[in-house]
Design brief:
By secondary structure, this protein is α+β, with helices and mostly antiparallel strands. It contains 13 helices and 7 strands. The strands form 2 sheets. A 5-stranded antiparallel β-sheet has the order 1-5-4-3-2. A two-stranded antiparallel sheet has the order 6-7. The chain binds a DNA duplex through helix 6, helix 10 and helix 11.
DNA sequence: CGCCAGGTGCGAA
DNA sequence: TTCGCACCTGGC
């Protein structure tokens, strides 16, 4: 067990439950058990302290800080957003402590390929089943968990096997993506270095990855805060605040007002719109 | 039953 | 280039 102290402006509950990630359990003591990279972690927040348990202790503090994006100055970004748009004061206040999780790229790609025209519950089931069948088994706190599979774990998995996971018509999309990663036709690291336009364009050359999935992946796996997935909730928020839900107008407004932090602004709106009343 | 869910690919205009 | 529709599946 380790303690990480002096963590301010962080809301563990909101960050975990807002739909960024599909692989966690909320425990009875309000802690979260998370399947994170090569280990299982249990995190509990007591004011500005995080109490972390894991089956693996090496480098644990860094992994946690990295995952919860705790070194980024969100206060600064929040001030920037409010300065550029006074409408945003309420939203930023409401979202105080919310972070964009830094998740593992391969997992995010697969999860969001599955998310197309799908419900959160169904996505979770498929992702958990994929992990149970093909991921490494880990015992933690006398329970069994399964890590998310590595690309090579899926090298022999067929489209019909994916169908068994209830992913439906998305089977071929997953299959092709996994094959390309294993062939080195896709380099998952290249997206850390490309600018947003290039990265989105390149990602969308893969079947099952359109603008929504590409921008989700770029934001959540590569921490590119410039991109903004536009979904029904975001449209609703834009309509309410700016009187339009036209995608082009949304793009122009967010570019002009939020610039390189559009991704976070849109996440805030999503969170606000989805949870408030 | 029918409709929809944090979209995408395809063919037709 | 844009537009309309089909699409696995499960939940309501």
């Amino acid at each position: 067990m380790i303690k990480i102290e002096h963590i301010n402006n962080f809301n563990l509950y909101d960050t975990m439950t807002c739909g960024q990630t599909f692989r966690y359990d909320l425990e009875e003591d309000d802690s979260f058990t998370i399947i994170l990279l090569d280990r299982i972690v249990n995190v509990r927040q007591e004011k500005s302290t995080l109490i972390v348990k894991s089956n693996k202790v090496d480098n644990l503090e860094n992994i946690i800080i990295d995952y919860f994006d705790l070194n980024r100055d969100y206060e600064k970004i929040n001030k920037y957003l409010i300065k550029n748009d006074k409408h945003f004061k309420n939203i930023v206040d409401y979202c105080n402590g919310f972070k964009v999780l830094k998740q593992e790229p391969f997992e995010v790609f697969i999860s969001y390929i599955i998310s197309i025209n799908n419900s959160v519950n169904s996505i979770s089931k498929s992702v958990n089943e994929l992990s149970r069948l093909y991921g490494s088994k880990v015992e933690f706190d006398s329970k069994t968990y399964y890590l998310f599979p590595k690309p090579k774990d899926l090298i022999n998995v067929k489209t019909s096997d994916y169908r068994e996971l209830k992913v439906g018509f998305r089977d071929i999309n997953i299959y092709e993506f996994v094959q390309k990663v294993n062939n080195k036709e896709i380099d998952l690291n290249v997206y850390f270095d490309l600018d947003s336009i290039k990265a989105l364009e390149l990602m969308q050359q893969n079947r099952g990855i359109g603008p929504k999935v590409a921008s989700c992946v770029l934001l959540m796996a590569y921490q590119n805060f410039e991109v903004y997935p536009i979904d029904t909730w975001v449209k609703k928020a834009f309509f309410e605040i700016y009187g339009t839900d036209n995608i082009k107008e949304i793009t122009n407004i967010s570019k002009e007002k939020f610039g390189k932090y559009s991704g976070l602004a849109v996440q805030y709106m999503f969170h606000y719109k989805r949870n408030k009343k």
